[in-house]
Amino acid sequence: MINNNTKDKNKSLRLAAENSTTRKNLNGLVIKPGGRTALYSRRGVLVCVLKNKRDLDVLMAEKWYRIPAAYMPGHKFKYLAFYQPVSFGRRGKRILYYAEVLNCRIAKRKNLLPKEARHPRAENFYLKIRIGKIKKLPEQIRNVMPRRISFGFTTLEHLLKSKNILELYNIAETEKIMEKGLRMARIKSVSQYNVKCGNKRFRLDFAVFCKKGAIAVECDNKKAHSGKARVKKDKIKNALLKQCGWTIMRFSESKIVSDLDGCILQVKKAVGKLGGFTP
Q: Per DSSP, which regions of the chain are E strands?
């Protein structure tokens, strides 16, 4: 079901695409006569997701990518980089390819994919992005400590130099810093620990098991944990973990980078209160 906001946005996009005499700026993209857009950014890169190998095959053969109008990017870009999720098997959880954007236009899904004319979203508007030669990165960019990847922005310089997702988005590697601190302090921990609370599943940055309970150590990167939606999710996660008997310790990026010793000391005190480590 499409909500009213999405309907209104689709209508605006349609009107912009059909108007042959005016230009209308939508989310930073300039809609030109005929529905085409000019993406005026020499170095901007939009990181997008290929859902499966079929999407990659279509991309390689037909040289275009689509984005639902409801998720129209809010920044200008000149390049696309393609993230391959876990569904790609051994070649998943990484970025291998990128391409320069040639042009794009607004169109209904049924016109982009005529063989899927009966699809539930057939009448929805999409941004069709035509690309040039698909190039392989000099070094693949891995999602080392698995994070959920959706649309994101970076620069061409970062894309060509980065070795992992955190470097790509210029995010401090707080988990590596914390892991080293815990190890140096001889605090036994399990990284990327999966836990189930009721009908919810969570992945903890670090789990520390003690005689009288367990501690969840969470490293909150500024970029990843500053949005309202993310803050709300973190609060829900904290509440459910607490109900399941966990002690939650969250450390901000600035705290980890500037005062790691202070963070480690807090963890040590929490371990002491819970009777020390499990045998």
A: 24-26, 29-31, 36-38, 44-49, 64-68, 79-84, 94-108, 125-142, 152-155, 190-197, 200-210, 213-220, 246-252
Angle at 159 between CA 155 and CA 162, to 5 degrees: 125
pLDDT over 80 at 1, yes or no: no
Whether the CA torsion 134, 224, 233, 270 is positive or negative: it is positive
Domain ranges (residues) in the chain? 4-168, 174-273
* SS3 state of residue 205: strand
CATH fold of 174-273 reads: Endonuclease; Chain A (3.40.960)
CATH 2.30.130 fits 4-168, yes or no: yes
> What length does the chain have?
279
Q: What is the pTM of this model?
A: 0.62
